[in-house]
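Input record (one chain):
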Amino acid sequence: MPRTINLLILCCAVIMGFIWLVGPYSAHLELLPDKGPTWYYWQLPDPTWLTRLTAWGGFILHQAFFWWLIYTAKSKVKAGELSYTNKLHKYNYIALGGNLFFVLLHVLQTKLFYDGLAQEMHVFSGQFAVIIMLSLVLVLENQRRGLIFGKKLSFLNSVRYLVKEYHGYYFSWAIVFTFWFHPIEINAGHLLGVFYTLLILVQGSLIFTRYHQQRYWTVLLETFVLIHGAVVAYISVYHDIWPMFAFGFLTLFMVTQIYGLGLSKRTLYICNAAFVALVIFFYRDDYAQVAEIVRIPIILLLVALVLGALLLPIAKRQTKGE
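The corresponding structure, as predicted from the sequence alone:
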């Protein structure tokens, strides 16, 4: 990957080191007992108006900053004052600096007040936001790599312009909401989640540069959820479901995302054979469980199709209007 992206990834790693050094964050708190899969454990047992205000205030300011940045940069492009470049421009530096400020603000807010948006929002709301984001990426990339085994769906291409035009607003909301949903913690699941969030914030900060579309970088962003999802599942009380996340996202990579890397047919055949061999070896003691590897791909692909179908009438009206 380009040196600039590698440097930004290194910066994210340095921030993670800082987060680790500032911790712990909840060692002085006695959190409520876990009440099951619909309960979010990492929240204050006795929230106050001030703890809520700091979480929601930080989120709203962060989101307003990101939306302002996207709107301003897009306005400059339409006015002919900004175009895609091979290096960082003014708005990239503003975005990177602003996001760094709000990341550090959330670290401070967690250290002083702890709570995130989870106090008011359902535990699955952040997950649904990310699911829709990942599915919209499938819609965006359909034109280049296809949806399944390199096969492109024309009706998704019809809505691609609409998604491309406005996806920044939704993607920024999804990741900023997810970031402020959780307090900062130093367990493996939270750390991986924050690191993943930092990478996506970097991607949003690379608006209108060639880096924003660099194929290996964008696939890394899509597939990092494999590591995060599998680790979070493994360290939870429901650790037996970790293969569903690991092999589920790996299956999505094999049937969709790998076709965007420009690999030769021979390399694709070798990768597919290795994947099948890995699945056979892992599930050799109970092949009935192998069905779990298609659950996540089916969900994400179906959501992509549904979103495409819902956006199609809007795209058609917009096209007629033009």
